[in-house]
Write a structure and sequence with these properties.
The protein has five helices and four strands, in the order H-H-H-H-E-E-E-E-H. By secondary structure, the protein is an alpha+beta fold. The protein has a domain of 69 residues. It has a four-stranded antiparallel sheet with strand order 1-2-3-4, with helices on one face.
Length: 144
């Protein structure tokens, strides 16, 4: 072996021994680091702070299901319409409450018979919000 090859091999082995191994992963099944303990002052909120928090808001009521209801079920849910219009082969019932106007489109159901709500449109707050307002107005007593 010539001197030059010997020198290169020695240098490579020397430099190879100087490398630092990367981070080692813990063995499989070994527990991970435990949770960091909290100082006692932060463990529980002060008793006075809980009194300052506002009460939780009630969950927003989901709008009632209208599409697919029969005309009788629609009357039960929304009450008598303020306007009725015939648009063959269907009809449109119009309701108003809380600054919005709801139009319910009823069409004949050939299988079940009678009319059923196929779709509805609203002006004002949006479909679901308007439907909820009209349904709430129908549940209110007449003198309220």
């Amino acid at each position: 072996m010539n001197v030059r090859a010997f020198f290169c091999l020695s240098l490579a082995l020397t430099l190879g021994g100087c490398t630092h191994p990367g981070p080692q992963s813990p063995p499989v099944g070994a527990p991970g680091p435990g949770p960091t303990p909290r100082p006692a002052a932060q463990a529980a909120p002060a008793a006075g702070l809980s009194a300052l928090r506002p009460p939780p808001r009630p969950a927003a009521e989901a709008p009632p299901q209208l599409v697919g209801l029969s005309d009788a079920e629609t009357l039960d849910l929304l009450g008598q319409p303020q306007e009725e219009a015939e648009h063959a082969p269907g009809k449109v019932w119009v309701y108003a409450a809380g600054g919005c106007r709801l139009s319910v489109h009823l069409f004949p159901d050939m299988d079940a018979g009678g009319f059923h709500a196929l779709d509805y449109t609203a002006s004002g707050d949006g479909r679901e919000a308007c439907l909820a307002k009209v349904a709430a107005a129908a549940r209110r007593p007449p003198d309220a």
